[in-house]
Write a structure and sequence with these properties.
The chain is an alpha/beta fold. It is 38% helix and 16% strand. The chain is globular. The model has no long low-confidence stretch (mean pLDDT 94). This is 6-phospho-beta-glucosidase.
Length: 471
Amino acid sequence: MNKTVYFPKDFLWGGAVAANQCEGAILEDGKGYSTADALTEGVFEKPLIPPAGFSLKEKAVDCYHRYKEDIALFAEMGFKVFRMSIAWSRIFPKGDEQEPNEAGLKFYDDVFDELLKYGIQPLVTLSHYEMPLYLATEYGGWTNRKMIDFFLHYAETVFRRYKDKVKMWLTFNEINMMLHAPFNGGGINQKAEEMDQTELYQAIHYQLVASAVVTKLGHEIDPDMKVGCMIAGSPHYPLTCEPSDVLEALKKDRQSLFFADVHCRGDYPGYMKRFFRENDIHLVITDEDREALKNTVDFISISYYMSYCATADEEKNILSQGNIMSAVKNPYLEESEWGWQIDPQGLRYILNQYYDRYQLPIFIVENGLGAKDTLVKENDTYTVKDSYRIDYLRKHLLQVSEAIQDGVEVLGYTAWGCIDLIANTSAAISKRYGMIYVDRNDDGSGTLNRYKKESFYWYKNVIETNGESLK
């Protein structure tokens, strides 16, 4: 490997969170229930119901009340950018109102002002695995075309409100995960395998149109605004060099690339049109929809945690556990304690894959290691000796440097869960990603005090040296 470590001078170093995993205050100051609030124990109920009884998400890690303390810690680490999301139901509690909730708008004004005070640029996701629960229960979530107008109204409200404070936006978090988790991604109260394929892809189509319409709107409101898509990036390698395995890997990759193709090229690719024909999937696509899709994004953002393998041989389909989906294990890779395979070179691979395909800037907005951390007392203070996290992040960042030297335009890197978060699906905190430890446990006990892990100081040095310390 080339020993040179290189990151551009304007590289955006930072961290990432999601509103529903950190804010808490789920009904405070006029906020309504969100779909994420209803997903309290890793499952959703039929019919959907708001949370009853104890859930860690009710308070989460209390960023709603402690954001100033947290942002000060981010500034101490040297963050240039902070990826966060707006809780849609904090702005429109039910989702179909005409007038927004001013208290919700004011909260994010205050958060953005605090970030800008430290010179930290906000990178904001409009819908990060949550939407007003009412839109799911009363409208069927994204199975309903009316969702496009609801989302557009929400986006216009926050674009106009924050246009002088936020210059970089993402529309939907990991939009391709609608294929695997329709409730998470689209407020659809069914499992993917239970859904009619036409209904599932019609919902996906509505989101793609909504994303494109919102991209156009952002550019109209502020020509300097940059709007990107967000894809869950998990490249597939053929398990063997047998041609059918290579084609199977191509097929698996296209399940995600399809979403980026539409966002970046403005139309459905030919392989998806064939897929629709051969699977008797008939979408309602209007001329207005086709015109809207031509409003392509300014950049691509991706999450990256692991790679997968693919094979056409069913007998070799040994599954490797992932966040929402699973795929074939790679026999050459180690695994985390949660069974996620660790593949730093896969990050370089997917950055090159996407850049070769689209020639658009790429932002790595999620990457990190979930682990069970142990808080220890050292020199009259508390810390976590998380050398395993440092090793993981270092190896991945070295591959980002390699991709940049390959010619890939990488805008920045935001480590996922820079402060410990409540898991979106399991609503637990024992699987930690942060460089800041939050004293809270799965049973709700703890002080919520913040403590700097060893990775905090390591990442601070990485940012200070613009990656030179990675050598």
